[in-house]
Design brief:
Layout lengths: L1 H31 L5 H39 L13 E2 L2 E2 L8 H9 L9 E2 L6 E2 L2 E2 L2 E11 L3 E10 L1 H4 L6 H8 L6 E7 L5 H12 L9 H8 L11 E7 L2 E5 L5 E5 L1 H12 L6 H12 L2
Antiparallel strand pairs: 1-2, 3-4, 5-6, 6-7, 7-8, 8-9, 9-10, 10-11
Length: 295
Amino acid sequence: MIFSKAASFNRLYLRHLENSNKLWSSMRNRHLSINAGPSHSTAIATNMTTAAGQRSRPFMILLVAGVATLTVDHIKNSSSSLSLSFGNYVHGGVTQCAAAPYNQNNAALAKSGGDVVMLGPTKEKATGILFPNLCNAMTFVGCGVRIKYGFVKVYAVGTYMDPIAMAAVKSSKAAVESALLDPSYPRTIRIVMNRSLSMDKYIAAIVEALTPRMNGQDLDKLEEFKAMNPKVDLIEGAEMEMTIRGHVMLYKNALGGVGQIDSRVFCEALCDVYYGKDPVSPGHKEEVIRGVMKM
């Protein structure tokens, strides 16, 4: 509630400031268009700029005082302090997945309608790797670990889904499982390395998992996937993202480079790798199903 009031106050101030700036700019241009000497025009512009700053200063002071008053009032009536986590700022349609420190009050704020930008991240149990609540404008639903040779924890993997797209299927486990295999339901698969690994081994593992699932179709797309990865080895903490939307897979590699593969066959095979009958991380699949049904 406190942050909703502060946000409303802030919006009113910014609207006032924007209108004031437009007004002073218009007046300044009108005065400068008068046939006056250069020194006179400069004096007018300087005086008006100064006046605009002086005009805005009381409102800035009022804004700070208002927020401070609201904050003090809240602390007096609350048994614990309050903080927000800004770890996944969305701007211009582009988001960056970045886990922020968890704060127990965030969940309470979300339930009470507070202005929360991001809930606390979820820790993958086996690796301790954090997954933020939002990624590429989609919501976190579950994570797990990719284990090789029975004990090597290679990477943590998390899934983000579109809650609106999943709303019609989330009531049934069978329907959720079917939707997870259908690339028409948008999702982002986020991989975070738990250990160093050569790029050749990483690519070989992905290609090995995809090839039999593609049934001999669009195999040239595997070469496209190889080419999208830089020729540098992966280090612990390296991240890759695969965003699937229908027949298109948008890929962000470990260095932040972006490319895409246009193939329904490839996208269906990738869905089967992580959500099929023999997924590379069974724990991840089960967590995703439970997460979707709770959305």
